[in-house]
Amino acid sequence: MSSTGKVTGELQHQPQTEEVNYLNNGHTIASWLLTGDHKRIAMLYLISTTFFFFLGSLAAGLVRFELTSPAGVVLESETYNKVFSSHGILMIFTFLVVAIPAIFGNFLIPLMIGARDLAFPRLNLASWYMFMTGGILILIGFIAGGVDTGWTFYTPYSSMYSNTQVSLVLVGVFIGGFSSITTGVNFVATIHKMRAPGMTWFRLPLFVWAMYATSLLLILGTPVVAITLLLVVFERLFKLPIFSPELGGDPVLFQHLFWFYSHPAVYIMILPAFGVISELIANFSRKRIFGYHFVAFSSIAIAGLGFLVWGHHMFVSSQSMYESVVFSLISFLVAVPSAIKIFNWTTTMYKGNVRLQSPMLFAIFFLLIFTVGGLTGLYLGCIGTDVHLTATYFVVAHFHYVMVGGTMLGFLGALHYWWPKMTGRLYSENIARATAYIVFVGFNLTFFPQFILGWMGMPRRYHYYYFAPEFQAYHIMSSLGASVLGLGFILPAFYLTMSLINGKKAGPNPWQAHGLEWETSSPPPTANFLETPIVMDEVYDFDPVSEHQQNMADLEKREASDNDGNMPIEDHD
């Protein structure tokens, strides 16, 4: 059965005799650093973003360690400010905004639409070099003195009062922003112009729809924040009256410009995860996504409405009450397309042939955690409750439930789902399932107590809280959860790396999934397909007869399995 359609020359039944694939087509360092292959560039992004993620995680662990005592443990307040700022900057600008689009978007979009590569391969490579240049400048800024402004770089503190390396870090973020813009341009051009014959807009996988909406946000929103941060650098260097009131500037103008991008940035982080979850739920429920058109257009609606809600970050600023009421109403409205996705995913699973393998576990835990994050966001979108909760740990918990819980679980689900396709190797499914539970428990233990802290009035970004020692128990609980969550992040790095050494070889389609990317070998050839695919079937068009045959084959494998913990991925519990 063809996953997405018939392929010229019966490609789906043709044995992949070509041994050369994108991983072994040139082993030198130069062949990787000068590559134009979208798959290799995706792997370069995987390595680099993982490096930045673990650096940011170390900073987060140090913050949690400090907060176990009301008077701190080892850090001075100034150093603490630099540590939590570095955590936020690394996680936002070098991982969450970048990870799923740059890794899985790069790797999968050409495969999913039947193209040989992205539209502009050299620009794609240049985007990785821009990303690395920006990331290295950020790290140099941390080493040379750090940043104590938080990841938001609020003026006038960042422009007038901070003696840390704000300018250098801002230049790094600025360069990294242009990496995102070029990636977005590449994706839009590829999706518009390079689809295989028969791949109409409504035969596109929902991951591609999500990446298309994300690309629009990147193209339209990133230049705003890039120029805004560059203006902060000019104000610091030349004392220009832009944002600092001492010079005649307006600090609230900075907030408007910054959040005009940074709230859409929330959707830049979460929309790709939405696309991943659509793929996982459809393929592990063995059903076409319920309301495919609604889910597809809800991504575009989120992208559009995301530009209209930035003012809900500024309810306690000098903006008028009338502005705040409008922003509050639109903030509730933007929840509608997100709710459409949640309800349609749930309906897809209803009476489906659900297989609780590790990628599907990450998808289900995503639904639970993101729902909590979305519902708590309604409290912050309501003016009356936001006045009480703003700048407290309630905001920290909400942000992490949406961004870290949502984006990170989407990332882990994608990594486990497409790892056999990317590497050609299988990992231990039992350990992967255990990891999903560890991440879920550790995440909730880390961040749910912070909702309680925020409701009790604990301000965020505070180093000392000896004025309210009753907060300590919740901070200790949160720090304990962070240790469990850290274990959940370390385990995949271990067993996925080990799979490259001794993992069993994966076939072209170890999940029996639906999509053009599963019609080629694992790992794919350099040109992706031996022949140009021609798409004739609808997306997620599972064949009930083939499903019955697959279920019987699964039953036979389970009966024959010795349950030694190293069963193939195809074995289903």
What is the distance, rounded to the nearest whole angstrom, between the alpha carbons of the first and last residues?
A: 24 Å
Please give the count of helices.
Answer: 18
Helix content: 55-70%
Unreliable stretches covering 5 or more consecutive residues: 1-18, 561-573
User: What's the shape?
Assistant: globular
Number of strands: 0
Strand percent estimate: under 5%
- Please state the CA-atom Rg, rounded to the nearest Å: 24 Å
CATH topology: Cytochrome C Oxidase, Chain A
| Helix and strand pattern | HHHHHHHHHHHHHHHHHH
Can you tell me the CATH class?
A: Mainly Alpha
Q: Can you give a write-up of this model?
A:
- With 573 residues, the protein is mostly helical.
- The chain has a single domain, classed as Up-down Bundle (Cytochrome C Oxidase, Chain A), CATH 1.20.210.10.
- 65% of the residues lie in helices and 0% in strands.
- The two termini are 24 Å apart.
Keywords:
single chain, disordered C terminus, 18 helices, Cytochrome C Oxidase, Chain A, disordered N terminus, 573 residues, 0% strand, mainly alpha
Brief overview:
With 573 residues, the protein is an all-alpha fold. The chain is built from 18 helices and no strands.
In terms of topology, how is this protein built?
Layout: H1 29-33, H2 38-66, H3 77-96, H4 99-113, H5 121-144, H6 157-161, H7 166-193, H8 206-238, H9 251-285, H10 292-305, H11 321-333, H12 335-349, H13 358-381, H14 383-389, H15 393-423, H16 429-456, H17 472-502, H18 544-560
Helix pairs in contact: 2-3, 2-4, 2-5, 2-17, 3-5, 4-7, 4-8, 4-15, 5-7, 7-8, 8-9, 8-10, 9-12, 9-13, 9-15, 10-12, 13-15, 13-16, 15-16, 16-17
